[in-house]
Specification:
Distance between the termini of chain A: 51 Å
Largest interface: A-B, 31 and 30 residues
CATH superfamily of the largest domain in chain B: Dihydrodipicolinate Reductase, domain 2
CATH class of the largest domain in chain B: Alpha Beta
CATH architecture of the largest domain in chain B: 2-Layer Sandwich
Number of domains of chain B: 2
Number of strands of chain B: 15
Structural class of chain B: alpha/beta
Shape of chain B: globular
Radius of gyration of chain B: 25 Å
Helix content of chain B: 25-40%
Oligomer: heterodimer
Shape of chain A: globular
Strand order of the largest sheet of chain B: 14-13-12-11-7-10-9-8-15
Number of helices of chain B: 15
Radius of gyration of chain A: 21 Å
Largest sheet of chain A: 8 strands, antiparallel
Order of helices and strands of chain A: EEHHEHHHEEHEEEEEEEEEEHEEEH
């Protein structure tokens, strides 16, 4: 006798966001117990990687690695190796040492502020994964200068999603979705009767409208958007994703979305691609496999945006399906539209042209 | 200097090479070295019980070079495998812990098995000549206290440490220093709780392993919430009151998770320490609103500790003195009462806020606490890590462990008595100790 299909959904606060687990199975008690394991592991990872908890292993590393080599737990060590690899392969666009920059701009806790150029130059001296030395044989980490700080904020949530999926899989669950807030998620299998988990990618100008829908199956997706965290000073808006080479917020980018087999990679690369922009991302994808990148770019006209989708070799195998873009009602707009009311009202019909240049 | 180190190494290798034990025993001093690795030797240990808690400890152990895991043991193959993967030092594996104890090259064992096995394994390990780290609660049955005490007394050179990790927390050490220095005045009440909304159930793919994996839920093996959760805060209260309770009353029930388990999911108990000192503890599995923590309340102040954060509140107390004083009052100044009511973080967040009067006042108060030597700005490491470092240091430096037998015994005994009070509905008393 088989019980009816059970759907389990639970949310859990951790890492400054809300993790959600949806899982299908036949036994509610079993699924609840699997949920316990998943959220316990996420809490444990937060306790290990948090830079807000002075007792976390990462905080201990940040405090001591400039003065001596610190022995690192094997799994965290692997993650640090992975993070430094991503820094190198993205030319520093993703950088786990960029924390001091975020602080200078007031993105930790406090209110935003614009630091002076000399202050930025000062801070940039303490940024760069070249200062992080990982000794694989000894499993130790060492900084070659004072003031360096590791911050896994742009990779840790994706990593936690992957670890959660490992647990779900280990307990034999085949249909599940794990997400960390709206930034990173992994879709395992598909819901009963569906070809994949339906994910709406939000419109960069409006959290209630979908810019695209994508179906995912055994695939992760991560988003970096200028709408996640920002502050306004005067008329200018400063978004929280900083370019580690200039020390300033990235401009002319609304969102970068990455589809990849692992949420950890997707998380790191969505930040990197956001910083790198379309052209540098194209170069990156020419030498890497199994990735898809989607950009929402500002348009010259009002609150419209342009899309660009880029694919690497092997991207057709990563389990992401875009349904055919629906025909959209397009109003004719005058060239060189002013910021009048008519331009705003037409903005809700996002320009549907796909800048789809597969590599 | 170098030669001395080399000699030491050579001698140790010689010991390990299993020359005849009788010949070794004839050499003065050698036996002591075999029992106690020196200050520069990694302690070679075996780990017994590599389930969830075992792996938590193993993860911290991977970062502690003072110990080296050379063997692990678990009767459940998936957990045995998980333990080996977690520690990553390619340990030998055993299903029978007695085979692990037979290894002469193992200095110490760490035990994180179900509660009902604690006493037997601790005793066997001590008798096998090992230093022992035993997870809390230390034992399951009242009579086991005396059994462990006897064996431990017969092996005085071996460290026996109990895994009450809050004793290794700088936050709690600071709190207790404040209590000891009178920052709270006369402490009369400790209130503590563990609240969570969780079934407390681990997933079991094959029903035949239910009792093995979810042992915490069955009375044959487990002391329930009081042993698994309460023991931590029972020890905090023992620490604050510097002694053991004299009696306990309690109530509890299986009120929410009626899924075949035998232990309660909702318990309340009050421990009486005599002289007006009491500890109220409650634990529930249907609501996590109040997280975990403890409030230590005296007539001059309160320490409110929730998770990793401690706040000190001063009680507004009238000052009474005899005779007149020079009266000189200012008009128009803001009264600083707000600072006392808001409380002072004894572990503030890393970044100090810099807005407003209250924050400046708090900062002043923190400096004042620091000047009295009772303020630490932050918890510098995880208490689990701390207790494990302490364990190896005790072995290598021949020091008393941070949680010795007496503390562990008082804690485990209170668990047993509180459970009895809950089950019988009767007040349960401690018998007067024969000093």
């Amino acid at each position: 006798m088989r019980a009816a299909i059970t759907r389990y959904e639970a949310a859990h606060q951790a890492m400054g966001t809300e993790f959600t687990l949806v899982a299908y199975g036949d036994d509610p008690q079993y699924l609840t117990a699997v949920g316990n394991e998943v959220f316990d592991e996420i809490d444990r990872l937060e306790g290990q990687m948090s830079i807000y908890k002075p007792k976390s292993e990462l905080s201990v590393i940040n405090r001591t690695a400039a003065s001596r080599s610190v022995c690192v737990e094997p799994k965290l060590f692997e993650l640090l190796v992975n993070a430094v690899d991503h820094s190198q392969s993205t030319g520093g666009a993703f950088d786990v040492t960029a924390g001091p920059l975020m602080k200078a701009w007031g993105f930790f806790r406090g209110k935003g502020r614009v630091p002076s150029n000399s202050e930025i130059a000062q801070v940039l001296r303490r940024v760069g994964s070249r200062h992080v030395h990982l000794n694989r044989a000894e499993r130790t980490i060492r900084f070659d200068m004072e003031g360096l700080e590791l911050d896994l904020g742009a990779i840790g949530k994706g990593y936690a999603v992957d670890r959660a999926v490992d647990i779900v899989r280990r307990y034999g669950v085949t249909r599940a979705l794990v997400s960390s807030g709206t930034s990173s998620l992994y879709a395992l299998g598909a819901p009963p009767g569906a070809r994949g988990w339906s994910i709406s990618l939000r419109n960069p100008y409006s959290s209630e409208k979908a810019a695209n829908i994508v179906y995912l199956r055994n695939c992760s997706l991560s988003t970096s958007g200028n709408y996640e965290k920002f502050f306004k000073l005067g008329t200018k808006t400063y978004a929280h994703i900083l370019n580690p080479s200039t020390g300033k917020p990235v401009e002319n980018m609304l969102a970068a979305i990455v589809l990849a087999p692992s949420a950890c990679d997707a998380d790191a690369l969505s930040t990197a691609f956001y910083v790198m922009g379309v052209e540098r991302t194209r170069e990156y994808l020419a030498t890497h496999r199994d990735l898809m990148a989607l950009f929402y770019l500002p348009s010259s006209t009002g609150r419209k945006f342009r899309r660009a989708i880029l694919r690497s070799d092997g991207s057709s195998r990563i389990g992401a399906f875009f349904p055919r873009t629906p025909e959209r009602k397009r109003k004719s707009t005058r060239k060189g539209t002013s910021t009048g009311a008519s331009a705003r009202s037409s903005a809700r019909y996002a320009t549907a042209r796909w800048d789809d240049r597969s590599l | 200097m170098k030669d001395k180190v080399n000699d030491e190494v050579t001698r140790r290798n010689f010991l390990r090479s299993a020359a005849s034990a009788a010949a070794l025993a004839a050499l003065p001093g050698v036996a002591a070295i075999a029992e106690n690795p020196g200050p520069n030797d990694a302690v070679r240990y075996g780990f017994i019980g590599t389930g969830t808690q075992g792996c938590t400890l193993l993860r911290f152990l991977t970062t502690i070079p003072a110990g080296r895991c050379i063997a692990t043991c678990d009767i459940y193959p998936p957990n045995l495998k998980k333990g080996v993967e977690t520690i990553g030092s390619k340990p030998d594996t055993y299903e029978d812990y007695r085979q692990l104890l037979d290894r002469k090259d193992i200095d110490a064992v760490l035990i994180a098995t179900p509660l009902y096995l604690h006493a037997r394994m601790t005793i066997d390990a001590l008798e096998a000549g090992k230093h022992v780290f035993i997870e809390k609660s230390m034992f399951f049955k009242e009579e086991e206290a005396e059994q462990i005490r006897k064996v431990s007394a017969a092996h005085p050179k071996q460290v026996l440490q109990v895994g009450l990790h809050r004793r290794s927390s700088v936050l709690y050490q600071t709190a207790m220093e404040m209590v000891g220095k009178g920052a709270l005045g006369r402490v009369l009440l400790v209130q503590s709780r563990v609240t969570t909304h969780s079934s407390w159930r681990r997933p079991v793919a094959d029903a035949k392993y239910e009792r093995l994996i979810n042992w915490r839920m069955y009375r044959e093996y487990s002391g329930g919430l009081m042993a698994e959760m309460g023991s931590h805060f029972i020890d905090i209260a023992n620490w604050a009151f510097e002694g053991e309770p004299v009696s306990v009353i309690g109530t509890g029930g299986l009120d929410y998770w009626k899924d075949g388990r035998e232990v309660h999911d909702n318990i309340q108990s009050i421990f009486d320490y005599g002289g007006g000192g009491r500890h109220y503890f409650h634990c529930m599995l249907f609501n996590g609103h109040h997280s975990n923590g403890v409030m230590i309340m005296g007539d001059q102040g309160t320490l409110d500790i929730t998770d990793d954060r401690g706040i000190y509140f001063r009680e507004p107390v009238a000052k009474i003195s005899s005779g007149p004083a020079k009266e000189n009052w200012w008009a128009g100044a803001t009264v600083s009462k707000a600072a006392a009511q808001k409380g002072v973080l004894i572990f503030p967040e890393k970044e100090a806020k810099d807005s407003g009067f209250v924050d400046r006042e708090s900062l002043y108060a923190r400096r004042w606490l620091a000047s009295m030597g009772i303020y630490q700005p932050e918890e510098p490491y995880d208490p689990y890590w701390g207790e494990l470092v302490n364990f190896f240091a005790s072995i290598r430096e021949n020091k008393a462990p941070v949680v010795p037998l007496e503390i562990g015994t008082a804690d485990a005994m209170a668990v047993i008595k509180a459970n009895r009070a809950i089950d019988t509905g009767q007040k349960t008393s401690w018998t007067k100790k024969s000093a």
